[in-house]
Each structure stands twice: as C-alpha cells, then as structure tokens.
Amino acid sequence: MTAPRCGAWLGAKRRYCRATETVRPYRTGLRCPAHTPAAEHGRPEPPPGPGWPVPPLAAAELVDGCAVVSGGQRSPPGVR
C-alpha cells in the first residue's frame, strides 16, 4: 500500500504537491500542513475538537431523541 499524498495543485509549478508527511483528509481531499484549507487562506489551524465522524450509536440516539420530541416513533427494522 502506498503512503497517502497531498493532492493540492501547484498552479505555478503545474504539478501536484504529492507530499507524504502528516497528510490528513479534508473535504477538498488529502492535504499536507502547507495546503490545508486554513493555510491556503492565511489562517491558523483550528484547535482539534469532537468533530466528525459521529459514532454510529450517537447518531442513532439523536434520531431516537428527535422522534420522541416530535411525538413520532422509529419504524421497525426492514420497514421503509
């Protein structure tokens, strides 16, 4: 398996960054620290927080809680 690589396009150099150190996934794709969305806008990185992804159990509890608040109920498994 190959190491993940930064997929930022370097227009002036007409090539992709392809860095492999500390690459993380973002909505725009894999990015190295120099090409994160915050870095490209000249802002500091936000502090780490709870963020996504939501654990599956927490998502199910949220749906159940919304159903209870609205007076509805969840359908049994297999019913659409």
Could you characterize what this model shows?
By secondary structure, the chain is an alpha+beta fold. The protein has two helices and four strands, in the order ββββαα. The chain has helices at 37-40, 56-70, and strands at 9-10, 15-16, 24-26, 29-31. The strands form two sheets. Strands 1-2 form a two-stranded antiparallel ribbon. A two-stranded antiparallel sheet has the order 3-4. It is elongated.
Short note summarizing the structure:
With 80 residues, this protein is of the alpha+beta class. The chain has helices at 37-40, 56-70, and strands at 9-10, 15-16, 24-26, 29-31.
The global form is elongated
Q: What structural class is derived from the secondary structure elements?
A: alpha+beta
Main β sheet profile: 2 strands, antiparallel
Query: What helical percentage do the residues reach?
Result: 10-25%
Across the major sheet, the strand order is 1-2
N-end to C-end Cα span: 40 Å
- The poorly predicted ranges are none
- What is the ordering of alpha helices and beta strands? EEEEHH
Give the amount of beta strand, in percent.
5-15%
Give the averaged pLDDT, no decimals: 79
If you compute it from the alpha carbons, what radius of gyration comes out, rounded to the nearest whole angstrom? 20 Å
- The tally of beta strands, per DSSP, is 4
Number of continuous helical runs: 2
